[in-house]
Amino acid sequence: MDTPEFHIMVAICAALVLKNVGIAVLTAGARTVAKKYINPEDARLLGGDTQSDDRVERFRRAHAHSTENDYAFMVLYVLFQMSGADAFALQAYGYTYLFARLAHLLCYAAALQPFRTLSFLVGTLATVGVAVQLLMVAFG
């Protein structure tokens, strides 16, 4: 566990988890500023309503999209590290995925197309690349 490969994997996974926590905080902050809450009891207590607005929904969708993709990548990425992947491959896939997903979040929040789709595709290709590498190890 005291290898460069392990440290790379840990850093990438920790950054992805922190990104997801950050999006949750951004979503909650956007709800508070807009006074748009999910639950009627929250709206009554905090003086808002249950209708949403575009900014809140963008953060909420970005968060849902992030959790759909990041945790699947992390599972594959941990298995990839455990399979004996070298440091270059771990860095290439990990940093590509991390930066693509950060770009996706920013593009989603700012409504930037086609960059949102392009960043999604880059992250997806990194995930597929790791999955293919694992299949090659499993059946090679």
Structure overview:
The protein is mainly α. The protein has helices spanning 4-34, 40-46, 54-82, 87-109, 115-139. The model has no long low-confidence stretch (mean pLDDT 94).
The gist of it:
The chain is mainly alpha-helical and 140 residues long.
Give the helices and strands, then pairings:
Layout: H1 4-34, H2 40-46, H3 54-82, H4 87-109, H5 115-139
Distance between the termini: 25 Å
Shape: elongated
Would you identify the regions where 5 or more consecutive residues have pLDDT less than 50?
A: none
Mean pLDDT, to the nearest integer, reads: 94
Task: Throw out a few tags for this protein.
mainly alpha; 140 residues; elongated
